[in-house]
Amino acid sequence: MVKWEERVVRLHMISCSNCEMSLDIQILKALRNSAEGAVSGADLSEELGVSRAAIWARIQELRSLGYEIEAGPHTGYKLLNSPDALHAEDLVSRLGKTRVIGRDIQVFQETTSTNDVIEKLARDGVEEGAVVFAESQSKGRGRLGRKWLSPAGKGLWFSILLRPKLAPQQATMLTVASATAVRRAIEKQTEMKAEIKWPNDILVNGRKVAGILTELNAELDRVKYVIVGIGVDVNLNQTDFPADLRKSATSLKSALGHPICRPELAVAILGELDEDYSRIATGEFSMVADEWEKHCSTLGRDVRIRIGERQIRGCAESLGEDGALLVRTEHGRLERIVGGDLEIEKS
Ligand code: BTN
Questions:
Q1: Which of ligand 1's atoms lies nearest the C-alpha of 230?
Q2: What element of type H or E holds 173?
Q3: How far is the CA of 335 from the centre of ligand 1 (A)?
Q4: Which residues line ligand 1 (CB under 6 A)?
Q5: Domains of the chain: which residue ranges?
């Protein structure tokens, strides 16, 4: 049994819903949205319905968390710089209103695996859309029982709780949606071309920068909940990876040559996922699937897929209606593949 409660240290945890915002979120939001670049204490106090002294106290608290906020007697408060650390209030303020994803955001300094934390929330009946980030994970896990390296402050390690109205065999749609969302966010934030390797690795320059672990809890005919765990290697150095991964994995910082703002990338991913998840809910999965196919480096390639003891060889033809990979085998049969370890055959 995972005793995550004993292992996590709360960094600056709050429960935020899109409608009940804490004062910090509202202050950060007002500073970010101000057209003039600065907001006076009097305006903040009036807008947020609290005293100027209360605003000043929160500004001091935000400064202690690393927010550079200038206070000028004539100009008011101006946000000069935000820390790269993940803070729940900051993420909520940057994300703005979403349909589902990010209704509740929590940030932990350390946990075993954010998937474990979300699992506990799911069993406690928490609403879908909850997101848990950790600055580091002591037992981060990847697909097929592999370990997932999660060093402190260098990546995005987070999980999302979903309660979709889907049959278990349709859950692959969520993997497809998560991969398209992560890919799009990376491309928009870095302006580097990113592609998808089936089922849900995100590659830049042919090397893996992000992976997704989807865990399902279902009855025979309906999904109870799904945990989407996303790991993005943002600001790792090449030497942070174990020697055996250095050729196949990279970070956005290594690929770009400079670090990336993690909170900005985090909310970009959540925003994109909110879009794609709502497409599934409204029966528009084909739009997501088309985008996945367009950016998938696996399609059209000869592949070898290991599923437990079984091995399938063939050509990856397309994506099925439910998100499965359709592979034309060497014997001419079309196989529907929902999981496994895929390698591209060398031509
Ligand atoms: C893979 O490519 O094998 C999937 C990697 C998924 C890693 C993320 S990090 C956040 C979440 N917590 C985990 O323990 N794993 C996922």
A1: 8
A2: helix 172-190
A3: 27
A4: 113-115, 137, 140-143, 146, 148, 150, 157-159, 201, 211-213, 229-231
A5: 23-81, 98-294, 302-344
CA distances from 311 to 144, 196, 304, 326, 328 (A): 15, 22, 7, 15, 13
Q: How confident is the model at residue 268 (pLDDT cuts 50, 70, 90)?
A: very high
Which residue matches tokens 């209030």?
89
- Per-residue model confidence as pLDDT tens digits over 177-233: 999 999 999 999 999 999 999 988 999 999 999 999 999 999 999 999 999 999 999
Pair 214, 159: CB distance under 8 Å: no
For residue 146, which atom of ligand 1 is closest to its CA? 3
Write the DSSP symbol of residue 43.
H
pLDDT digits (tens, 9 = 90+) for 95-152: 989 999 999 999 999 999 999 999 999 999 999 999 999 999 999 999 989 999 999 9
**Protein residue closest via CA to atom 16 of ligand 1:** 229
- Shortest-distance Cα residue to atom 3 of ligand 1: 142
pLDDT for the residue 17: 38
Residue 234 CA to ligand 1 center (angstroms) comes to: 14
State whether CATH 1.20.1600.10 applies to domain 98-294. Answer: no
CATH architecture for the domain at 302-344:
Roll (2.30)
Closest atom of ligand 1 relative to the 201 alpha carbon: 2
Distance CA 330, CA 26 (A): 59
Angle at 92 between CA 137 and CA 16, to 5 degrees: 85
pTM over 0.90: no
User: What number does CATH give the domain 23-81?
Assistant: 1.10.10.10
Q: What distance in angstroms lies between residue 141's CA and the mean position of ligand 1's atoms?
A: 5
Q: Best substitution site from 108, 178, 230 to test ligand 1's pocket, by max atoms within 8 Å of Cβ?
A: 230
